[in-house]
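Loading example: each entry is read as four labelled lines plus one structure line.
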Amino acid sequence: MADHHHHQHLPSDPALRVKALETVLTEKGLIDPAAIDAAIDAYEHKVGPHRGARVVARAWSDQDFKRRLLEDATRACDEMGSVGAQGSHIVAVENGPKIHNLVVCTLCSCYPWPLLGLPPAWYKSFAYRSRAVIEPRSVLAEFGLELDDDVEIQVWDSTAEIRYLVIPQRPEGTDGLEPDALAALVTRDSMIGTGRALQPEAKP
Amino acid sequence: MADHHHHQHLPSDPALRVKALETVLTEKGLIDPAAIDAAIDAYEHKVGPHRGARVVARAWSDQDFKRRLLEDATRACDEMGSVGAQGSHIVAVENGPKIHNLVVCTLCSCYPWPLLGLPPAWYKSFAYRSRAVIEPRSVLAEFGLELDDDVEIQVWDSTAEIRYLVIPQRPEGTDGLEPDALAALVTRDSMIGTGRALQPEAKP
Amino acid sequence: MNGIHDMGGMHGFGPIELEANEPVFHETWEGRVYGISRAMTRPDGFNGDLGRYTREIMPPDLYLRSSYYERWLWGFEWALLHFGSMTLDELKAGEGSKAASPRNDALTADQVSATISHKMPSDRAIDTKAGYAVGDRVRAKNLNPSHHTRLPRYARGKTGTVRLHHGAHVLPDSHAQGQGENPEHLYTVAFTAKELWGEDASPRDLVMLDLWESYLEPV
Amino acid sequence: MNGIHDMGGMHGFGPIELEANEPVFHETWEGRVYGISRAMTRPDGFNGDLGRYTREIMPPDLYLRSSYYERWLWGFEWALLHFGSMTLDELKAGEGSKAASPRNDALTADQVSATISHKMPSDRAIDTKAGYAVGDRVRAKNLNPSHHTRLPRYARGKTGTVRLHHGAHVLPDSHAQGQGENPEHLYTVAFTAKELWGEDASPRDLVMLDLWESYLEPV
C-alpha cells in the first residue's frame, strides 16, 4: 500500500527516480527497456501534427471527405490511419469567419495524440488550463490572435475520452494547391485553436 | 514597482529575509526595533485566550451580561477591555444541546485577536480552511468531538471584519463556581468551536 | 480573484495537524514578521484589505509551500516595493540607501500597547438604505473578478437567508484596489450545506458568510 | 474530488509561456517516463481513469511545483506501490527483490507501433435509453465527491444545452474507484460564458464540456 508521501523517501531528482523505477520494473520482467526506446522514438519521429495536417488538408480539398469528417471524425480519421491511443473517439469542429474553436483540458491535459502527437508544454501549463475557459480572448491574444468582438468563441473542455480536432479556416490564395502543399500550411496550433493556418508564400 | 517574483532575488530562508527587511526599514526610520519587541511580548504574554475565557465565564455567571453579549458583543466585550485590532466588530454565538457553532476563515485566517490572541497553526492550515465548510463533522471528529446527527452545525466563515466568538455550553457540576474558576474551564478551542469547555475536576 | 487562497471546499490537504502546547511563534523570525506588521510605518495606499490581496497574488505554488508568516513576509515585501518604501536593491543588500534622511515618526515601544486595544471599525454611516432585511432570501451573485473580493467561489450562485445585518462596512473589493472605501451594507447570510454542497450534504448544517450588498441579488 | 487539478477558471497562474521549436521531450528522463507508461505491464486494477486519479491525489503543493511528467512519475510510483507491483524498499534501492522470478510477458519493442494505432474505445452498448436529446436544456448537478470525477467545479449548478450525444461511455467516477465501468450516456453540453462566469463575461462565447448522464438533471 502507498500513502501520499512516498516521494519523501525518494530522490527529488526525477531522473534518478525514473532510473530506479525502470530498473525495478525491468528486473521484475514488467518492462522491456527496448520497448521504452521504441515508444520514445515513435513519438519523437513518427506521430506528430503532420498527421492531423493531412486530415485537415484533405478536408479542405475534398468536400465529401470533409462532410464525413464533420459527421463522424473517428471513422474519417481511421480511413487515414490516425486513430489510436488517446484518440479513439474524435470530433472535428470547424472554424469560420464568425466562429472560432479552442480546445483545452482543464482537469489534466487530454489531447488527440494520434493526430497531433504529444502536447506542447504550454498546453499542459496551469496558465492555459486555468485561463482558456474563463478568458479565452486574452489567452488567444497572447498567441497573437486578436478576434473581433462579433466572433463567437467555442471552448471545448475535454472532460471525457472524446478528442477534439479544430479544422482551421483555409487561407486565401490556396486554390489549386495539392494536398501536400496545403498540409504544410496547417500548424499544430491551428488544430488546437490557438493559431491560424499559415498563408502560402507569395509567388514571385 | 514590484512584480510577483521578487522572492527569486532574495534568500529562501525567511529568517534572512526578515532580517534584511527589518534592517532596511530601521535605517529608513520606518520602524523602531524596540516596538517590534514590544509587539511580540504583548502577544506572547498579554493577549491570549484568557481574555475570551473571562468574557465567557461572565456570560455563564451573569444573565444580564450574557443578554448584552448576545445582543451586541462588541459593546459587551468593550466593557471588559477585549476589543481592538482584528476584533473591532464582534458577534457572540451560543452553543446548545442541539446547536454547535464553528468558526473558520477560508480566505485567509481572520481570528478575534483581542479575545483569543493569535491563532494556532491548525486554524491557519490549508486543511482546516478547506475542510471546515464542506465537512465540519469530520473536522470536529479529528478534534475528538463526535456530534450526534440531530445536532445542527453552524459554520461561520469570517469573510468580513466581523469576528466570531463561540460561547461553549457550560459544563455540568459548575454551579456556584466563581468566575475565575469558570474561566479556567474555557479553552481556546471551545471558543472557536473545535472543543468543549473542560469538566471541573471531580471533588473528593 | 479566483486564487489559490480561495480554498473553502477543496479536498486534498490531508488531516488537521494538532500541536500540544503550541508556542505563539514557532521561530524567532515569525515574531519579527508579526511585530513588523504592527509597528511599521505603512506607506500611503496600504490598508488591511490590500494586505490580504498582496498574499493572494503570490504565485500559487509558492503560496502552498509557504507558512502563514512566510506569506505575510512576502506580502509586506511586495507592498513596500510596490509603494516605493524601499527598493529591491536595498532589500537584496539588507541596508537602506545612505542618501535618504531617515524619518523619525515610527511607532515607539511604549505606544505598542495602545495599538492593541485601538479599535479600527470598518462600519461607516451611509445614506443608502439597506436593500435586504433579516429573513430575506438572497442569492450570491456569480462574480469572478480578477481583483480582490471576499465572496468565496463556493457560495457564488447559491441562495441563502439573511441572518444578520451589520450596517454598512468598507467594501474590500474597492478598498484593496485603492479605489476608496465605498461602504455598502453588510449581511450575514446563512446557506444550507445542501445548497452549497449538494444532496449528499448533512440536512441540518448551515454555513454563514458575511456578504456585502453588491455581492447579493434578490430571489 | 475538489482537487488542485480542477483549475478551470482560476486566476494567478500568469501568462502562457510559449517556446519556439519545442522538443517532444525536454529531458531524457521525460521520455523514459512516457515510454514506461506505454510499455509497462499494468497491474490488475490499473486503468486510465485511475491513472488520472493518482495524479489528483498528489499533495497540492507538490502538484503545483511538479512538471507534467513529474506528476506522471509520481502517479505511476503511487499506483505500482498501491497494487503491489513493487515495494517502496525496492524503489528506494533501485533494484527488484532477487527472490521473485521475473515475468516474461512484457511488451517488446516490435509490438510498440501496434499499441500506437490500437484503439481503446470507451463507448459501450447499454440497454438504458438516453435521458436527454440534442437541444435539451440540462443542469449540471452540484456534486462534490471526494473521489475522482470529470465534472469540473466551474460547471456545477450551471444550466446548458445538449449539443452532442456520444452514446454510452465508461463512467470515470466508478472506473477509477475499481467499481466497474458502469457506462452511462455521454453528452457534450454547451454553456454560455455568462452562465459560467457571470454578467461581465463575453455575450457570445460558449464553453462545451463532455458530461455523463448522472452529472445532469433536467431543467
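The beta strands of chain D are 123-124, 137-140, 159-169, 184-192, 206-212, 216-218.
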